[in-house]
Write a structure and sequence with these properties.
Layout (H helix, E strand, L loop, with lengths): L6 H16 L6 H19 L10 H20 L4 H29 L5 E2 L16 H4 L5 E8 L10 E5 L2 H4 L10 E6 L12 E13 L6 E11 L1
Parallel strand pairs: 1-2, 4-6
Antiparallel strand pairs: 2-3, 2-5, 3-4, 5-6
């Protein structure tokens, strides 16, 4: 007595028989998707500026999975699409390999000479030491470089003063930023800024100087006299 075939095996046999009889073979959708993800990955790395290049490693990773799925589909269902799939896999591999060294290159070259890169993590309060940690106090008077998002105030063009926030989730959508995630920025001449929601790069003299913000955000602990803006 022969074994019973599953519905999936019957469907596979039907597809194979149809291909043999008609000579028609459809292009694997996974192959096309792999090509799209590979192209987007390479374009993303080529245009990356303000966001980290490592974020684009997600796209080629997904593209590689789609490409491998396309290989299985082409073998199983005799689908076509080898050429776009190979191109897509190649683009994904190049993008995945290039993401880390590109990020290191950006990190090395984006900081102006004479400035120290800092992050918001060293500005955070430490339990038992008050609202301003020693790591922040050590930066007082130093020339630093930091990234952030402009808090939306009443004025939107020709800004000379504004509050810089750690993330755009709190500053750009009406939330109240954390006290240690805000820096009051004063731009030196001839710098000015128009408000938008993109990440900004600033450098200047950092000061630990608690006081009221000038944008209605409330109290701020840190000040930055910025002479570099991007």
């Amino acid at each position: 007595m022969g074994r019973l075939f599953t519905d999936e095996e019957i469907d596979d046999a039907a597809v194979t028989a149809t291909v043999r009889e008609t000579g028609y073979s459809r292009t694997s959708p996974f192959s096309i998707a792999c090509l799209i993800f590979g192209t987007l990955s390479l374009l993303g790395l080529a245009t990356v500026q303000d966001i980290r290049a490592l974020y684009f490693a997600i796209l080629p990773g997904v593209g590689l999975l789609l490409g491998l799925r396309a290989v299985l589909a082409m073998k199983r269902y005799n689908e076509s699409g080898k050429i776009p799939n190979r191109i897509g896999l190649g683009l994904c591999l190049v993008s995945l390999i290039a993401a880390y060294p590109l990020q290191k290159y950006l990190d090395f070259n984006e900081v102006p000479p004479g400035y120290k890169r800092i992050g918001y993590e060293i500005l955070q309060a430490v339990e038992g030491t008050g609202p301003i940690p020693d790591t922040a106090k050590a930066l007082d008077g130093q020339r630093v470089y930091i990234k952030g998002f402009v808090y939306p105030g009443r004025q939107t063009t020709g800004l000379k003063e504004f509050v810089l926030c750690r993330d755009n989730g709190s500053c750009c959508f009406g939330g109240q930023p954390k006290l240690n995630d805000m820096i009051q920025v004063t731009l030196k001449e001839p710098l000015t800024l128009n408000y938008d929601t993109t990440m900004r790069q600033l450098a200047g003299t950092f000061k630990v100087q608690p006081g009221a913000s000038k944008d209605g955000v409330g109290q701020v602990l840190y000040q930055l006299e910025a002479d570099f803006l991007r």
